[in-house]
Design goal:
About 50% of the residues lie in helices and about 0% in strands. It has 2 helices and no strands. The chain has helices at about 5, 25-45.
Amino acid sequence: MTADSAAPLAAPRGLVRTGGPKDDSTWLEHVLGWTLVVVFAMFVTQVGWL
């Protein structure tokens, strides 16, 4: 397959999305991520895996 024949198969860059949160909500993503880390650490210590 040549580069010219594979070009129509590729999606345009502007339309490719991962389905994640919008770029303007980075602080919310950080807060939720650290909350998940703390909850997981509390679970691990309560179960006795550490």
